[in-house]
Amino acid sequence: MVEKLLVANRGEIAIRIMRSAANLGIRTVGIYSPDDRDSLHAFRADECHSLEAEGAAAYLDVDNIIRLAKENGCDAVHPGYGFLSENARFALACEAEGIKFVGPSAATLALFGDKAEARKFAIEHGVPVLAGTNGPTSLDEARDFYQNLEGRAMMIKAIAGGGGRGVRIVSQMNELESSYSQSAREANSAFGNDAIYVEEYMSRARHIEVQVLGDQFGEVVHPQVTRVPGQLNFWWIPLAADSYLSRPMPGCRSNTPLPKKYTKWIWLKHNCV
Q: 154 pairs with which residues across the strands?
């Protein structure tokens, strides 16, 4: 059981994690950049410490966050979402210091935290994907790819992170250069990585997903197939409802509702969002 948790995030995300941890009897350590010293999350943790850099860059400083976790006796770090939540180097650094990273393993993050590598993995296993580039893509490469789409729209996406950050739709060639620059800047600001790739844009898509939950003991469950009816800023709005495509999945136990121990894990891991 985690005894002292450093929350490596800010704002509402951090507050929800702190609240959940308190409900589980876990002490929390908050962090804040100097310009966030008056933010509410800086007062909700059991103790809180200042970072060195200003702005978003402070929450991307792996070495400083690990140092604070060690100095304050934290046995776990929760990254929330955004910032370092999908950063394999951060997860690996936690592991090297004997600190539990609340999230996937470093190996999993290295694969699925890089959308280009995830595409390659999907292709290798026979999963159909949209036409796209399979690695960091330059502006000239993006231009060549768009020309080959013969008038169809294209998506520019950040290779790292998620949440719709660094995503742009390009439907005209004269939009490409500015959209490419905006995407790279936004990705670098949010995730510390400005690499992007491109793929064909599919309009009027139906979003069906399966959320698979696993723990370190090999237990795996899924709460059926979820139909996500809407999107905001190119990111899905979650809906707790089964899809009409729901069916038992091979290799996983289906539990709806989930057992209490997994409900607690979801509460801590996903901040009740």
A: 170, 200
